[in-house]
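Recall the central idea of this unit: under ordinary conditions, the amino acid sequence of a chain determines the structure it adopts. In this exercise we apply that idea directly, starting from the sequence alone.
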Amino acid sequence: MGFLIDTNLWIAIERGRLAVADIHALTHQEPVYLSPVNVAEVRFGIELMKDEAKRLQALNTLRRMRRKPLLRITGDTAEVFATLAAKLEKTGRGSDFRIQDLWLAAQAVQRDFTVLTSNSKDFSDVPDLKWIEVRVP
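Accordingly, the structure predicted from this sequence is:
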């Protein structure tokens, strides 16, 4: 068993709105992973930032993220992703607007991990996905 953390929680921790202990209370001794998707989302935000002080702070966040274990995205992950996206399309709940969330979900489903997020609406309808909503004050 393991956990995959959504980018919104990583940012909440970085900003001091959530403590690492809050995550540990849910995961105990189980491993918590990041995804290349988390790195991409943070890097995307950095590329759009105009405030240099915030940009430097975000670059420090990115450096810390790179030191954490990242789950690999593989060919098997891609097949899980495609299956999940197709299932969502068939139910009328589109997938094209939330590609990054579906990649995280695919990694979690592939490995039977649980996604930790503060945005349950992004994951609540994904078939076969285990997720836990973490409240951010």
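The beta strands are 3-5, 32-33, 114-117, 130-133.
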